[in-house]
Amino acid sequence: MLQPLLEIKNICVEFKTRGGALKAVDDLSIDVQQGEILGLVGESGAGKSMMGAAILGLIDPPGRLSSGEIWFKGQRIDQNPEPFRGCEISMIFQDPLVSLNPLKKIGDQLVETILRHKRMSRAQAIDRACRGLIEVGIDPERLNAYPHTFSGGMRQRVVIALALASEPSLIIADEPTTALDVSVQAQILKLLKKLCDSRGTSIILITHDMGVISETTDRVGVLYAGRLAEIGITDHVLRSAKHPYTRGLVASTPKIDPDSFGRSLYQIPGSMPKLDAIPTGCAFHPRCTMRTDKCSQERPPMMKDTAACWLLEEME
Amino acid sequence: MSFITAKNLVRRFDLSDPWIVRKLTFRPKKFLTAVNDVSFSVEKGTTYALVGESGSGKSTIAKMAVGLLTPSAGSITLDNHNLNDPNLSPQRQRLMRRRIQMVFQSPYASLNPRWRVGDILKEPIQSFDLIQGTKNQAKRVEELLEQVGLSPSDAKKYPHEFSGGQRQRISIARALSSQPDVIICDEPTSALDVSVQAQVLNLLKSLQKEFSLTYLFITHDLAVVSSVANRIGVLNKGALVEEASPEELFTNPKQDYTRMLLNAAPKML
Amino acid sequence: MKRFFASDFFYDFVRSPVALVSFLIVLFLVLSAVFAGVIAPTNPFDAASLNLMNGFTPPMEPNPFTGDVFWMGTDDQGRDLFSAILYGLRISLFVGAMAVALATVMGVLLGLIAGYMGGWLDNLIMRFADIQMTFPSILVAMLIFGVARGILPPELRDEMAITVLIVSIGLSEWVPFARTVRGSTMVEKEKEYIAAARLIGLNRWQIMMRHILPNVLNPVLVIATITLALAIIAEATLSFLGVGAPRTEPSLGTLIRVGQDFLFSGEWWILLFPACTLLALALSVNLFGDWLRDKLNPRLK
User: Which residue in chain C is spatially nearest to B97 when comparing CA positions?
Assistant: First the structure.
């Protein structure tokens, strides 16, 4: 077993408020292997963006990483994430409009990023930048263009090129295609997969879209109320989910299926609890159709490395 | 029998530079044709879905259908009444307004944050003079809240006390309070989580059955469309490129653009 | 009311020394002005009660002729300065508050109209605002004051002095309100709840007043507080220059002007006490306004 590229061990992200400390991420542990695309799926408030930000220490006060450890390539990085930011670990955000400096040509932004992390002459950096643009499917002639002359999808490609400029081992992509049209989204996802294959870069893909998860990721982790509900190989999780929440999520996702008209969509009753009202025991139990008494009393640990659910205990 | 008919709808937007800039640089006026000769018809009690990407003109058509924009050419008729007839008196126009209402995309910007929910729901009732007397109006508000799955005590609360999905329910209740025949749904679930989306879509379907509503459903999501629409129209850059029932569209798409959209849509399993 | 005392705002308020102290000073001065009739030992405006022999009495020392003691001394005509300051505070505060009220109403209305209606009306109002802003507000106030003086017949001049003062200061301070409200209006106008209001058949005025107005008032309170400080100083300046409150109904500014004449002949108290009072008032209002602005701003995120 190769050592995982990234190991997240029991992290908690807390927010201090007048009423006490709220946990946006509660005792979460997950690993990322080399060369894999790991999906993190969850609804709003589940804590997936928080998790992505926590890896690089990008959480704004009053929030903070209150406990746990983050290990990258065998080194502990949670106390000192800065050397890794943008270098070994890059990040891509949702909105390409605000990820690029509108006042600088994209070539300048690329070259600046390259020179920050590698020592080389400016001419070599420009050459690198051109190759980077080709890799993401942009004509290198546009090196001297400003961001506003690009469409949304093209801008996101530039952002990906920027993220790759430092040749990172890990890219954290936080909802990279949510703001894009469906056709453009397909192209960007294909690009991400290609980059993972050709360069061996691992990607953490954070999204709420199950379809994106299904098409792009190798493994997927399902988050609920700041906790990991289920983790496993994408196909397994989607086809035969073990956790009731995952099952409900898959069932309520609309699919392109001509037979589906006239039938109601499956709906999970209730809604995700707010951070200051997380139920005792298993956070999902009030909405779960298969809950037992134990579910409301004790929080289930991750069973058999797949799902955090007491129902799995009986099967052991 | 067609209930809503759009005939040769055109909408142009004037994006010209200011007059003086044009005179000095000898440039002509610039127009953007957002909707270019679109025609479709919707049967009473059914859902017609308009699908397209950004810039396809679907939101513009929705706004024309509901009266927020006037067409540059062409017409929309409801039950054989032309909605934009210049001969209509302001009274008649208001009556037409009541029959078509809209549910918007953003749950956060579609409710006035300073008004209580009960007042938001009461406003259309008062404005269209549908029910007189504060007691009767309050009862109707309670009724509306229950119809969308909320409780009567929610009338006293403010919008920010509700989640996104609940706010969309309030928006739907507001649309219902005018007792309309048609509801234009402009991407009503695009900003919602998957599980909440399912709840809202199911609610819309059950309300349609209960009140014989006709829906014009605007979306970019083909998967959503497949569970709600009787008929689908595909828009590309302002033109209606294909129109079919969901079965035909998904199993046998005729146009390249439709095929491209179907391929690009992320598929589960 | 109870919700207010339990709110975050109140919590931070009682924990901030600046906010608390400045608010208490303002409160103290306002109450003194309101109850001037009760607190003041004499009525400085009643010419009959003045004794010229009391003139130029230093503070806390008995007058060599009449033996009366005055806490803050007297001016050249024998007026008790303490009473004069209390009554002068009244005028300063009254003019300041009324001027701000006028500026607020005018600015908010014009801002709403400019923001919502757009087009040439927006252009007209904003260009008018731009032109007015190129002049210092004191000059604008003096201009309006002068015009009003010119129009009014001489008998009314002194009586109307306060009203003219209010109008001229108010008209010179409406622009920040209008600009801010216009900006917020333009943002709110695009939101879907306004489209929903149009679908219900409301006309433009109904939408502006019922729906947009409540949502653009947030920054107005802060601007009003800061404008109050400016208005108080503006009134003092105008009175100091001789074009504001007359000697028969002096405000703090008028008293300062009088005091300045006598500073170098040794009667320092006639200048010092009114000046300190004005300083305390303007500074406290300013500090509280600043704190309010900082408090309310990040919340808008």
Answer: C199
For chain A, the domain total comes to 1
A142: confidence class by pLDDT, cuts 50, 70, 90:
confident
Residue A237 lies in a domain: yes
pLDDT the model gives residue C301:
40
**What number is the ipTM of this complex?**
0.88
Q: Pick from C8, C102, C16: which is nearest to C290 by CA? A: C16
pTM listed for this prediction: 0.84
Tokens of A283: 């956070």
Assigned domain for A141 exists: no
Tell if the CB–CB gap between B250 and A185 is shorter than 8 Å: no
Q: Domains in chain C, start-ordered, CATH in brackets? A: 23-33+79-299 (1.10.3720.10)
Which chain A residues touch B if contact means CB-CB below 8 Å?
A: 43-44, 181-183, 185-186, 189, 208-212, 214-216, 235, 238-239, 248-250, 252-258, 260-261, 263-268, 271-272
Phi, psi of C86 (to 5 degrees): -60, -45
pLDDT digits (tens, 9 = 90+) for C126-142: 999 999 888 888 888 88
Task: Please say whether the beta carbons of A71 and A7 come within 8 A.
Answer: yes
- Cα dist from B150 to A141, B72, B154, whole Å: 57, 41, 7
Tell whether B260 is within 8 A of chain A (Cβ). yes
* CATH number of this structure's domain B48-55+89-264, picked from the four choices 3.30.565.10, 3.30.420.10, 3.40.50.300, 1.25.40.10: 3.40.50.300
C30 SS3 class: helix
Find the length of chain A: 316
Closest residue by Cα to residue A299 from A314, A315, A285: A285
Farthest CA pair distance, chain C: 81
Q: Which residues pair with B7 in a beta bridge?
A: B75
Structure tokens at C39: 């607190």
Q: How far apart, in whole angstroms, are the C-alpha atoms of residue C32 and residue C54?
A: 24
Is position A100 within any domain?
A: no
Report whether the peptide linkage leading into residue A62 is cis, meaning its omega lies within 30 degrees of zero: yes
Both structure tokens of B252: 């046998």
- Parse chain B into domains and list their residue ranges: 48-55+89-264
Residue bearing the bigger pLDDT, C7 or A233:
A233
- Cβ-contact B42, B68 below 8 angstroms: no
Q: What are the C-alpha distances in Å from A315 to residues A242, A269, A304, B186?
A: 11, 26, 10, 46
Kindly report the number of other CB atoms within 10 A of residue C146's CB atom. Answer: 13
Q: What would the mean pLDDT of B12-34 be, rounded to a whole number?
A: 83
From the list B106, B114, B178, which residue is nearest C192 (CB)? Answer: B106
Q: Which chains touch C (3 or more CB pairs under 8 A)?
A: B
| Mean pLDDT rounded to a whole number for chain A | 87
Contacts of C89 (CB under 8 A, 6+ apart): C29, C32, C33, C36, C252, C277, C281
Instruction: Judge whether A204 and A191 are in contact, CB under 8 Å.
Output: no
C16 has a chain B CB within 8 A of its CB: no
> Chain A contact for B164, CB < 8 A?
yes
Six-digit token string for C33:
């002005």
CATH code for the domain in which residue A50 is found: 3.40.50.300
- Examine residue A145 and state whether it is found in any structural domain, yes or no: no
Q: Average pLDDT, whole number, for chain B?
A: 89
Contact indicator for A142, A106 with CB cutoff of 8 Å:
yes
Residue among C140, C143, C51, C33 at smallest CA distance from C95? C33
Distance from CA of C134 to the nearest CA of B (A): 26
User: Is B106 in CB contact (< 8 Å) with chain A?
Assistant: no
Place of tokens 């998790």: A51
Please report the residues numbered 17 through 76 in chain C whose beta carbons come closer than 8 angstroms to any beta carbon of chain B: none
Q: What is the domain range of residue A289?
A: 6-88+166-254+266-315
* C195/B104 touch (CB, cutoff 8 Å), yes or no: yes
Residue A120 DSSP SS3 = coil
